[in-house]
Design a protein that fits this description.
There is one protein chain. By secondary structure, the chain is mainly beta. The chain has one helix and eleven strands. Strands 2, 4, 5, 6, 9, 10 and 11 form a seven-stranded mixed beta sheet that branches. Strands 1-3-8-7 form a four-stranded antiparallel beta sheet, with no helix packed on it. The relative contact order is 0.31.
């Protein structure tokens, strides 16, 4: 299975951006999906996750109320609103059939290569 992110870029503080992630090589509906982010010198941190059916979601406290994760038949999205400079990071998409993997970041079956999001203040 492979996943690939798109939609990163430069945005001003207070603005919005949407990331997308597509999965190939397996049946998308059988995978829980997550988003993580990483800045230089720090460990990768959990941002959001959505269950296989889309009925359950989870968010990091730092993004609750600002970010929304969703999925359709073949893509997972991360809508990011009210962006802050501290949201600047490389954002990674994660795919696994196990919910725990996509909320913990451990033993994830597939990671994307990352999409850079830069928020200017």
């Amino acid at each position: 299975v492979e996943v690939a992110e798109s939609g990163g870029g430069l945005v001003q503080a207070g603005g919005s951006l949407r990331l997308s992630c597509a999965l190939s090589g397996r049946v998308f509906a059988t995978y829980a999906m997550g988003w993580f982010r990483q800045t230089p010198g720090k460990e990768r941190e959990f941002v959001a996750a959505v269950s296989r059916g889309g009925g359950s979601t989870d968010y990091a406290e730092s993004v609750k109320g600002r970010f929304t994760i969703s999925r359709d038949k073949d893509t997972v999205y991360l809508q990011m609103n009210s962006l802050k400079s501290e949201d600047t990071a490389v954002y990674y998409c994660a795919a696994d059939q196990n919910w725990y993997a996509v909320v913990s970041g451990t033993r994830v079956e597939a990671w994307g290569k990352g999409a850079l999001v830069t928020v200017s203040s």
